[in-house]
Amino acid sequence: MKVNVALGSNAYDVTIGPGARHELGAILEQACAGYQSCVIVTSKELRGQAWFDIDHRNDATVLEVPEGEGAKSFESLAVLCEQLAALKVSRRDVIVSVGGGALSDVCGFAAAVYLRGIKVIHIPTTLVGQVDAAIGGKTAINLGAGKNLVGAFHQPVAVLCDSETLETLPERERRSGFGEVAKCWLLEDRRSSALASASLDELILLSVTLKARIVAADEFESGERALLNYGHTLAHALEVLALSRDPDMLRHGEAVGVGLAFAARLAFALGRIDESEVANHDEVLSYFELPTTVPQEFSTRSIVDAMGHDKKAHHDLTFVLAGENGFEVVRGVEQGLVAQVLDEFRAER
Ligand SMILES: NC(=O)c1ccc[n+]([C@@H]2O[C@H](COP(=O)([O-])OP(=O)(O)OC[C@H]3O[C@@H](n4cnc5c(N)ncnc54)[C@H](O)[C@@H]3O)[C@@H](O)[C@H]2O)c1
Fold first, then answer.
1. The pLDDT of residue 259 is above 60
2. pTM above 0.70?
3. 314 annotated active-site
4. Is 151 in contact with 109 (CB distance < 8 Å)?
């Protein structure tokens, strides 16, 4: 299955399905004609997985970066770029990320800045990577001051979403990845009743198709792309609060699950949707076994304050909300109402 991200001269295909990683050789010939070296960037742990069998087939050199979020630092970016330089990687060459969203973020950023830009192919190996991080060209590393504060837009030349690689994902990573899938399912106005007949590859396809369509319409996030932040106003606030306590407390997708359940209730309180749509949200989240409880440790006040500091909220309380005209970015939602709905939501659970 292929989805095209229609970005004119920067357009590319996302290939989805079991075994998609084996398309790498063909993609290198087609999209990177004349390349001399192919460098795969992954982590030590992922290199040891049984599905990591693409380097020898494609005569590639393999470089390792630290696991997960540890890869998204200036230090790891510098080491990676020095290694590319030592290998004499030129602007005709290509790097291939094989890993989760953290890995595609740092690798994409290295591809954006090394020699002022070289080609990158992503082979995302987490659900978050396949339905979100590897598509759309946003790349980033973290600062002490916050996540993703340094980065660039740099589109890949291809993305290969291979569901076979997901078989080794730890259960919590897998479940949390469904937070973004649930978001896409709801943004596409799908009913919970249709979920039982959707395979994993079909869920990935639906999510990728939605993201590709939105990215093609708004590559640099000046408008419609903000809809992809559905559920994220509360999710980001919870993540910021959780990070200061215990980085392991809340995965992004788990926070998105809570954020989606809350966004439905806020839309209901604003008269935008009816109770059946709130129930549909709850059923979708329950199908994916996503948590919908706000951690007791955080007061409603601290959560509302954290929402106000979300960089994507432009210092206002801004939410993506469902409504009669579909999903919209709703600005200037009164803080008092947000606190009241949040209190009611917490009391429900
Ligand atoms: N650029 C974007 O548009 C975008 C979008 C969403 C998220 N992100 C970023 O993505 C990151 C989160 O990505 P993530 O959820 O994929 O987590 P991750 O990349 O941190 O990976 C989580 C863990 O799973 C391991 N792992 C990866 N694939 C595996 C596999 N197949 N089998 C076993 N273990 C595997 C990783 O080594 C890591 O330890 C965050 O840094 C976030 O900012 C970026």
1. yes
2. yes
3. no
4. yes
